[in-house]
Amino acid sequence: MRRFQWNSLGVGDHVQLHQSAGPELTDGVIQVVEVVRGSNGVGVRVDQDVLWPARMTVHLEPRDPAESCWRCDAALGI
């Protein structure tokens, strides 16, 4: 996810994230946003947990197929 997209996320936004190095995506909802200089901290609720993923492991929902992601591309054999 590009930094400007990451920094524009707000509580209640729906996202998909990679929880491992594999291509699987998990649905989540933004629960907490910590506004800091550079790149915000974003807490994503997945089931009963709040995760603090890296920006490059998160996709906006619905996922933009034009957005490059090595994890998703690997699943497609690209």
Description:
The protein is of the alpha+beta class. Helices cover 14% and strands 32% of the residues. It contains two helices and five strands, in the order H-E-E-E-E-E-H. Strands 4-3-2-1-5 form a five-stranded antiparallel sheet, with no helix packed on it. Strand 2 (26-34) and strand 3 (41-46) form a beta hairpin. The two termini are 19 Å apart. The model has no long low-confidence stretch (mean pLDDT 90).
What's a concise summary of this model?
By secondary structure, this protein is an alpha+beta fold. It is 14% helix and 32% strand. Strands 4-3-2-1-5 form a 5-stranded antiparallel beta sheet, with no helix packed on it.
Write the layout of secondary structure elements.
Blueprint: H1 3-7, E1 14-17, E2 26-34, E3 41-46, E4 49-51, E5 58-60, H2 70-75
Antiparallel strand pairs: 1-2, 1-5, 2-3, 3-4
Q: Percent of residues in helical segments?
A: 10-25%
Number of helices: 2
Which outline best applies?
globular
State the secondary-structure class. alpha+beta
Give the N-to-C terminal Cα separation. Answer: 19 Å
Write the H/E string, N to C.
Answer: HEEEEEH
Low-confidence stretches: none
What is the radius of gyration? 12 Å
The beta-strand count equals 5
Mean pLDDT figure? 90
Percentage of residues in DSSP E strands: 25-35%
Main-sheet strand order equals 4-3-2-1-5
Q: Major beta sheet, specifics?
A: 5 strands, antiparallel
